[in-house]
Write a sequence for this structure.
C-alpha cells in the first residue's frame, strides 16, 4: 500500500508515464490485466496553458480510466504552477513533475533532467506548484543526476522537494547522460531514499517480479515504477504484485495469450481513435507483444504497409504457430 497525502494506492506497483506509449488504449488494456495506477504521457505545461489541441488529445480519458496521474514538464515556475492548477481542476488523482526526461528536445531547453543541475530553479518550480495545488498529492520523478551516477544530485533535489511540500519522489537509476543505456544503479537510488523521509519509488530495469523484489531489497524504496517492462506485457503488474506479496509470479504468457491481448489493444485503439491513426499506432504496438518471437521481423515489415483494421487483425491472427492451450484462459 502507498499513501500519498489523502490518496491511497492498494498496489505498490505503478506504471511510469511514457511519451508515445501510455495513451488511453494502453492504460485501459493494462487495467484489464491488473494495473491499478498509471500516468498519462508527459504534458508540456506551456502547451496545457495555451489549450494546445495535441495536449488535449494526450489528456483524453474516461471514467473507467481511474485512478490516473498527470505529469507536467517545464522550466518556468509560473507556468508550472498555472498548469498544475489546471491538472487538479480536471480531476486527476495525482500530479507528477518531470525532472527525469533526458531527450535533447526536453533537457536541451532546460526542462526534464536539466533541472537536476539547477536546484534553485527546481525549488522555485516546487514552491509554485505546491502553492497552486490544494488537494491532490504532488510528486517528482528524477534521474540520479546529469552525469554523476552517485545519486548525490538526486538526493539534493529530493531534499529540496521534501522541504517544499512535495509528497513523494521517484528515482530512475540512470543519469541523463546514460539515457537508457547501461544498468539502473539501485545502490545509488538507496542514497536518495536515505536522504528524505517522504516515500521514494524506485524505477529502472524492472522486467519481472524478481527484479522488483531485488530493487526494493537494495533500495529500501516504498514502491516500484515500471516503465518499458509494461510494453506488450500487461501481465507484469499482477505478476510483480504477486511476488512482492510472497506469491508465485504469473506463468509466462503464451503466444496465444499475447495475440489475444494485442487484439484487445487494437479494439481499444479503434474505440478511441480514427482507423487511420489506430492503424499507424499498431505498427509500433504490435511489435511490443511479439518482441523476440521468431518471425517478428517479417511481421514488422508487413504491418508497416497495412492501413486498415481488418488487414491488421488478420495479420495478428495468422502470426506464428499458436499453442492450443492458453496460460491465462
Amino acid at each position: 500500500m502507498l499513501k500519498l497525502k489523502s490518496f491511497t494506492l492498494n498496489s505498490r506497483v505503478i506504471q511510469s508515464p511514457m511519451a508515445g506509449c501510455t495513451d488511453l488504449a494502453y492504460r485501459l488494456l493494462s487495467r484489464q490485466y491488473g494495473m491499478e495506477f498509471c500516468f498519462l504521457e508527459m504534458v508540456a505545461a506551456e502547451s496545457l496553458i495555451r489549450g494546445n489541441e495535441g495536449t488535449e488529445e494526450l489528456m483524453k480519458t474516461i471514467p473507467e480510466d481511474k485512478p490516473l496521474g498527470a505529469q507536467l514538464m517545464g522550466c518556468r515556475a509560473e507556468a508550472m504552477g498555472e498548469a498544475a492548477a489546471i491538472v487538479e481542476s480536471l480531476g486527476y488523482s495525482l500530479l507528477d513533475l518531470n525532472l527525469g526526461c533526458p531527450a535533447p528536445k526536453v533537457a536541451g531547453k532546460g526542462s526534464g533532467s536539466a533541472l537536476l543541475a539547477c536546484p534553485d530553479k527546481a525549488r522555485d518550480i516546487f514552491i509554485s506548484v505546491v502553492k497552486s495545488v490544494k488537494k491532490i498529492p504532488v510528486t517528482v520523478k528524477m534521474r540520479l543526476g546529469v552525469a554523476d551516477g552517485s545519486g548525490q544530485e538526486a538526493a539534493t533535489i529530493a531534499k529540496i522537494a521534501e522541504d517544499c511540500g512535495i509528497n513523494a519522489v521517484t528515482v530512475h537509476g540512470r543519469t541523463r547522460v546514460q539515457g537508457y543505456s547501461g544498468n539502473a544503479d539501485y545502490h545509488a537510488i538507496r542514497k536518495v531514499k536515505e536522504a528524505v523521509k517522504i516515500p521514494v519509488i524506485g524505477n529502472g530495469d524492472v522486467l519481472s517480479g524478481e527484479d522488483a523484489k531485488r530493487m526494493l531489497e537494495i533500495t529500501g524504496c516504498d514502491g516500484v515504477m515500471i516503465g518499458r517492462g509494461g510494453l506488450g506485457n500487461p501481465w507484469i503488474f499482477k505478476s510483480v504484485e504477486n511476488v512482492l506479496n510472497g506469491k508465485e509470479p504469473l506463468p509466462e504468457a503464451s503466444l496465444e495469450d499475447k495475440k489475444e491481448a494485442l487484439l484487445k489493444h487494437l479494439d481499444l485503439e479503434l474505440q478511441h481513435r480514427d482507423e487511420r491513426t489506430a492503424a499507424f499506432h499498431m505498427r509500433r504496438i504490435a511489435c511490443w507483444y511479439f518482441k523476440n518471437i521468431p518471425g517478428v521481423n517479417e511481421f514488422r515489415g508487413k504491418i508497416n504497409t497495412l492501413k486498415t483494421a481488418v488487414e491488421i487483425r488478420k495479420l495478428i491472427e495468422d502470426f506464428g504457430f499458436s499453442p492450443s492451450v492458453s496460460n491465462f484462459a
Notes: The mean pLDDT is 94. The chain has two domains: 2-244, 255-318. The radius of gyration is 20 Å. The first helix runs from residue 24 to 32.
